[in-house]
Design a protein that fits this description.
- By secondary structure, the protein is an alpha/beta fold.
- The chain has helices at 69-78, 138-148, 170-178, 188-197, 223-232, 234-247, and strands at residues 9-13, 22-27, 40-45, 48-54, 83-92, 102-103, 107-111, 153-154, 158-162, 183-185, 201-211.
- Strands 1, 2, 3, 4, 5, 6, 7, 8, 9, 10 and 11 form an eleven-stranded mixed sheet that branches.
Length: 265
């Protein structure tokens, strides 16, 4: 692949992140799994080659259950990406995780159904460990970057991933809350897992936009309200991504890069 179509760091997010990059150009990246959500923008942040892809498409045409996660991740791999930052708008399941704060998640509970969530359908059986879903190299970098910007940061949290596009019922939300989980989202699975199957390092930053409906006294949230909070915090998220990109080590090895070792029969 031509040098101008190479990148070492990937970012999934909303269209507002285009302004982060210098000397950016866009290209379609073909994959065996179909087309990604949109063209990939490739440029520079702090002198590092970065590929940016809006996971829902520029015009938000793909709801969470319809995203071609495999194509998105495979496109990043084809570009040479080794590190991925995946910010998300998320709800809170715990009073101490307030709207406007950010969570660097460390665990996932998958409550989705029917999503294409593996590259390995055979003929070689492949069992990839996902005990610790997020990259041990990127997580502390993200935590330090957020704190350096004065952002209220939760250093760990379990994100329960629901199918969407509907929000939870009050009973479902109370159930998730009762399990001690902190964050609710619709896109972290299978995105984070597919990155692991391709031996790419992945970190999530959950921007908390609202309390979920199972919280006592919380009225139902609307999509419009979620987007409003996200837009109000967009500059903080962009600043955080820029600082994370600056701090990612150029040549570091990581256990994520060896995820397939011992995983195949």
């Amino acid at each position: 692949m031509a040098d101008e179509l190479r990148a070492e760091i990937g970012v999934f997010g909303g269209s507002g992140f285009y302004s982060l990059m210098e000397n950016a150009h866009e290209a379609w990246v073909e994959t065996p799994y179909g087309i990604p959500s949109d063209m990939v923008a490739i440029g520079e942040i702090a002198g590092r080659r970065v590929a940016f892809l809006p996971r829902h498409g520029k015009d938000h045409r793909f709801p969470p259950q319809a995203i071609n996660y495999r194509a998105n991740l495979y496109a990043m791999k084809r570009l040479g990406v080794k590190w991925i930052v995946g910010p998300t708008a998320s709800g809170s399941l715990a009073m101490h995780v307030a709207p406007g704060s950010m969570v660097v998640a460390d665990q996932i509970v998958d409550r989705t159904n029917g999503r294409k969530d593996t590259f390995y359908d055979g003929p070689i059986t492949t069992h990839v460990s996902f005990a610790d879903p997020y990259c041990p190299t990127l997580r502390p970098i993200a935590i330090d970057a957020l704190k350096s910007l004065g952002i209220e940061t939760h250093e760990r949290g379990t994100v329960v991933v629901i199918q969407g596009p509907r929000f939870s019922t009050r009973s479902e939300s109370k159930w998730f809350q009762g399990q001690g989980w902190e964050v609710i989202n619709m896109t972290q699975y299978p995105e984070a897992y597919l990155a692991r199957e391709l031996e790419m390092c992945y970190v999530n930053i959950s921007l908390i936009t609202d309390y979920d409906v199972g919280m006592e006294g919380v009225p139902p949230v609307s999509h419009h309200e979620v987007i409003e909070v996200f837009h109000r915090n967009n500059e903080r998220v962009k600043s955080a991504i820029g600082r994370i990109v600056e701090r990612i080590p150029a040549d570091a090895d990581c256990s994520c890069r060896h995820a397939l070792e011992g995983a195949r029969f």
